[in-house]
Fold this protein.
Amino acid sequence: MTLGLVQRYEKRQFPKRALQKRKDVFELNWDDVRIFLSVARRESLSGAAQALRLDPATVGRRIARLEHAADTVLFVKSPQGYVLTSAGEEFLDHAEAAEQAMGSMSGLRGRGEGLTGTIRVGAPDGCATFLLPHVISKIVEENPGLDVHVVALPRVFNLSKREADMAIGVSRPQTGRLRIQRISDYALHLAASRDYLAEHAPILHRDDLKGHRVVGYIPDMIHDRELDYLAELGLQKVDLASNLVSVQLAFLRAGAGLGVVHDFALPDAPELHLILPEALELKRTFWLIRHADDARVERLNRFATVLTEGLRHEIGLRQNA
């Protein structure tokens, strides 16, 4: 498929060396441009191939075809992977503009018919496990032509490399060309199973926490200061640890110790009991983070609106359950 909106580049729009064999213009195949973007963002043929579900050799051939069409070298291979040349860096700007144009056309096509296509959302695993399934299932039900991929990873997402179309974070980014929107505040409390509390010394004051087994994050794998809950509560030693909220919750439900729990996860863990809820409450905020250029993509704007509204409703519903 040829990309009509940006299929032709005039000399003034691209380096002269890229047009030595073509006096005026060259045509681009959108699939080749899409592959170029994936290689540029992942800096490897194998990484791009995995993301695109193609064979690495096929990705390599398509890049070679694109370089032949442009009559210039777009990548050089280094020990760090595939690195853009100066021509490749300039071509990247045009390729990303083409990508945004395609996204805008998808939004226009579905404006009166519901959202369509595929949207990838990155989120911390607590949000991905306990909130997004409820919210996104309703969105997809109302938009049958829409596919949503939820990427749940305990780290910060790189939107510049298009690891996701948008991401939910627990810290407001301070750098980068990003569009940031506050979604909602949420609460966390210290909790343990009723069986654990029945079998151990009562906790009536903060000092009573000493001597109890503590469940939490692996200290050297805390990727965001907002996740350092235990230090804020004065608890330093972690006896049972995981980098995943879902595993920590499983420890608590099994009666392994006490730890911090999202209030919105409590409906899924009825055997847990809050510990000193008035004295040991924590507050955090979810932020919706998008690449600044995506503000022009109507389809992503519409999805961001329904996602944000859905999350606010679900958080309020579950925290008050």
